[in-house]
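Aim 2 progress update. The chain analyzed this quarter is reproduced below.
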Amino acid sequence: MAGASISEMILFIAALVVAASVAGTLTSEVAHVGDAISARSLDVADQVRSDVEVVSDPAVGVYNTSGDGNVTVYVRNTGSSTLPTGADGVDVLLDGRYRTDVRLTVVDGGDTWARGSVVRLDVPAPGLASGDHRLMLVVNEDEEVFRFRT
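Predicted structure tokens:
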């Protein structure tokens, strides 16, 4: 009888050790998943705060309107955060080619691209061929595509 209760005690202790290790592993993994969800939600919140819309009319013409060979579009900040006005804050692709020589000018003359403000975006493109074109803007992971014809 004593031998049976000792073996039952050993099995009971072994079961407790296995259950404790499984519970510890599950608790640790749940904590990691929770941290990942929290980090991702902060990224999504930043993306939601950053939103822009191209307000130019492609039917009126956006190329070479002032004779300088630029593509000129007007972009409104429709998000809830202030956006950078430097060229490094906006990624521009014209017909699939990345452009670094862009200029942003706040239309109302302010220094910041606040919510509701409009900027004038000038992309030098001398000699742009006639036909259909595509301008893609990326601001804080918000992508806008503007199609126009020259």
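The helical segments are 2-49. The longest strand covers residues 70-77. These observations will guide the mutagenesis experiments scheduled for the next reporting period.
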